[in-house]
Design goal:
Elements (H helix, E strand, L loop, with lengths): L2 H30 L2 H6 L2 E10 L4 E10 L3 E8 L2 E7 L4 E5 L4 E6 L2 H12 L14 E10 L2 E9 L5 E6 L6 E10 L2 E15 L2 E11 L6 E10 L12 H9 L1
Antiparallel strand pairs: 1-2, 1-13, 2-3, 3-4, 4-5, 5-6, 7-8, 8-9, 9-10, 10-11, 11-12, 12-13
């Protein structure tokens, strides 16, 4: 190969990768249902079950998401219900499974994952430019026998999500979230499946997640999803009035 030709190929490579990343993101949005239908969904309520401890425990699971950045998820077992919520500013939880029945605020690091899940409920690649994300295409990588397209999504805070897209349908089959929490990098792997349409938009109804390398992963299987449900903002806010009433007593 002529040296000049080789040099031009090297210089052109970043441009080709950037273009490919944008093209794949556009194909993903189209595969999910298109921009208009995605934007038309302002809130979602998923309900189903969560399997933990190697599948030995089954909990009722409910998750409500609302634009622009609110989320509340509940897990119920034997009359006890845990809550984790984020209202766009403050994250909090109630965890009776650890003997804590009063709401408690979470740290900024603990809130990061929840805030990103809420912002990306329509998909990490949806409106990525408006969210301040940058994309890089990293080629293909094997995901359980599928040569999936791999994209690196860099968030404004420096955290990274690797998105793996099915080469035929351009839907997410896996994401790996790399976040700095308490000064330590943590990676969470989420596998997606069982895509079903909700108001013209495809969402994954099956998820398996856990720390990278872990063998015991949490499985969530949704059996119902409702779009544009009524979800009062108070549902996501830290229940300060309740906490104040408890203090007054």
């Amino acid at each position: 190969m002529h040296p000049v030709t080789a040099l031009l190929m090297v210089l052109a490579a970043p441009l080709a990768l950037g273009s490919t990343a944008e093209e794949l993101a556009a194909k993903n949005v189209a595969a999910r249902g298109g921009t208009d239908k995605l934007h038309a969904i302002q809130s979602l309520r998923f309900s189903g079950k969560a399997l933990v401890n190697g599948g030995t425990l089954e909990l009722g699971y409910l998750c409500v998401l609302k634009r622009p950045q609110s989320i509340r998820c509940e897990a119920a077992l034997q009359g006890l219900t845990s809550v984790r919520a984020y209202d766009g500013t403050q994250a909090w939880q109630i965890n009776p499974f650890q003997g804590r029945k009063d709401p408690e605020k979470l740290s900024a690091d603990e809130a990061k994952g929840m805030s990103e899940d809420a912002a990306d409920f329509a998909g990490t690649l949806v409106d990525y430019h408006a969210k301040g994300y940058t994309l890089d295409y990293l080629g293909t990588e094997d995901v359980d026998g599928t040569e999936a397209h791999k994209l690196r999504v860099t968030r404004p805070n420096g955290d990274i999500t690797y998105v793996y897209l099915d080469p035929d349908y351009f839907l997410e089959v896996r994401t790996i979230n790399r976040r700095i929490e308490h000064g330590v990098p943590n990676e969470t792997v989420i596998d997606y499946g069982d895509y079903e349409k909700v108001e013209g938009v495809y969402f994954p109804f099956a998820r398996e997640s856990g720390p990278r390398g872990a063998t015991d992963r949490r499985k969530v299987q949704f059996d119902k999803a409702e779009a544009n449900v009524t979800a009062d903002d108070a549902l996501f806010h830290f229940p300060a009035a309740r906490a104040g009433a408890a203090s007054a007593r």
